[in-house]
């Protein structure tokens, strides 16, 4: 049966509904605050279907960023794949160049140096701490093997950098394979020129229509119907 509520604290009704949602949370609101975006992301991680329609306003930027955080994590996982391909290709080129030196040495020397430099740079930019570890390991290997030369140092460092880059990329892909939680948030952000004024909330099988935005001020301070 429909119910009507007026007052300054409709949040005491809406917040428990959001926290206890089991199946779905569908929201249309021109304004959404960071704390409620965080709650929606949490519910998405719990398996609740979350859909949000809001407006691209400066007031919403932090909330929108939170709802999009899962997409950024997924992009990071996708970026690990080309890094892995580059590192594996460099390792293969190095092995082929070593095994068939007389045949391929001249053909592979330039692309091999380019790929090696890319691996070193990518490891330094993406996993700088691993690059430092590789540098320390290179020094240790040189001392143990008594190979004190610039060429030996470069060869050892590059080889270790390639192996570590491959390992780091594989580990990140495996780790982020399970990080798809926020991607359950179906986020639609419309430009300010197409301002959405409706405030609609559907939680499981309960529908709410009114004048309250999904913000602390909207749910807890200002007078709403």
TrEMBL record:
Keyword Transmembrane appears in the UniProt entry: yes
Matching Pfam families: PLDc
Coiled coil region boundaries: none
Keyword vocabulary terms for this entry: Membrane, Transmembrane, Transmembrane helix
SMART domains: PLDc
The keyword Nucleotide-binding is assigned to this record: no
The name this protein goes by in its record: PLD phosphodiesterase domain-containing protein
Transmembrane regions listed in the UniProt entry: 81-100, 128-148, 154-174
Boundaries of every PLD phosphodiesterase domain copy: 192-218
PROSITE patterns named in the record: PLD
Entry-linked InterPro entries: PLipase_D/transphosphatidylase (IPR001736)
